[in-house]
Structures are given as C-alpha cells and as structure tokens.
C-alpha cells in the first residue's frame, strides 16, 4: 500500500456552507500523509461525528472520501475490523475505479493478515478478472497461496509479479525464501534473496531470508552472519529469532 495517496476532491465539490467540514478533512489527510495517523484519525472523526449528527448535510462524495481515509488510518494502526467497516462501504458506494481498486487491495491485505485467505483471494481475483493487474496484486495473491502451503502456486504468482516489475524486491525475497525453505530450488532461491538484499540492504525480513537461504544451502557460517544482521535490526521479530536459534543453537 502506498503511504501517500492524494485526495481527488476539491473545495468546490463540497458546495457552499461546508468549508469547515472540508478543512477538517483536508487537515486529517495532511496528518495522514505526514505519517501522523493518530492526529489524522482525530480530524476524520470530527467530521464523522457531524455526519452522525446530521447525515443529510453530507453527500456521497464527502462520505466516501472520509470513509476511505478512516479505513486507511485504521489499517495503518493495525485496527483491522474497524478498517474493514469503512473500506467495505467505499467499495459499495464509490464510482471511482482507482479508489475501488485501492480499497479492494487493502481489504485483501487485511484478510490475509487476519487469516481470512479465501476472502482475500476473492477480492484479488475480482480485480484480476477486471484486468487490474499489478505486482502488489500478485504479491498478495502469492502470499495467500503460501499461507495455504500452495508453494508452487505462490512461486508462479511471484513470477507474474516479476514479469511486470523485474526489480520488485518483495517478489524476489518471498519467492527466494519459498524456493530455499522448501528445497524446490535452493540455489535459485539464494540468488533471489541476494538480489532482494542488494535492492533493500536494511530490510530485516530480507536479511533473514538471505540468512535462511544460506543455511539451507549448507553454508551455516554465512547464514549466521546474515541472520545476526537481521536480528540486530529487528530483535523482537519471532521468525528471525526462531531461525537464529535453529542455526546457532543459542537461546535469546
């Protein structure tokens, strides 16, 4: 998901007498784009309260835009059930194809994180059948397949992502991890993990995958080196801790 999603509305679309609502909404959007989700949520709720007090004063465009940003805020804050409530309303009321695409991708992302994999696949396949393909779509579909242990399907989907974007580090890292972890093609997996780390050298998850791929290839020393770097960057990550313990036998 992109962190900076610009509003497509302007003040005139709100009509006369609604400038205060517009200003609060725009203030919230600025907080959101600056990464201050908590303050953004406060501004959005000041408008949401007005809708509850007198819904007739607000048109569909206003409510859709507000619900969209409320959904994004809740997603970023990890409050997924609240996010779903608002994003689903945007999908059913918006006429903006791009906005609907963004919401369906976000819905699928939440469904994957909350282990509602079939629902994630439903949302993503609807987009795919409409021709709205992207690396993000294929990466999310692939992750859903991986959660169901459909490793070959996941690999095929990551390959489709790389056909669209040959430098997509997420697809490289994830496919490399699966190839190495399952033993399908350990050396290819190692090469992909290396390329992902070359693109994003300070990503702890990528460093973890590379260390694990080295371990799976039989190079325990190199695996330990990369996993140590991953652990230094993200000492609280359970998966990195698990891999480090397996390789070193050390208790953290």
Features:
252 residues; mainly alpha; 74% helix; elongated
Percent helix: over 70%
Number of helices: 13
How much beta, percentage-wise? under 5%
* Gyration radius from CA atoms, angstroms: 21 Å
Largest sheet features: none
Low-confidence stretches: 1-17
Strands, count = 0
Backbone shape: elongated
What's the order of the H and E elements? Answer: HHHHHHHHHHHHH
Mean pLDDT: 87
Q: Label the structural class.
A: mainly alpha
The quaternary state of the protein chains shown equals single chain
How far is the first residue's CA from the last residue's CA? 33 Å
Textual characterization of the structure:
The protein is built from 13 helices and no strands. The radius of gyration is 21 Å and the shape is elongated. It starts with 18 loop residues before the first helix and ends with a helix. By secondary structure, it is mostly helical.
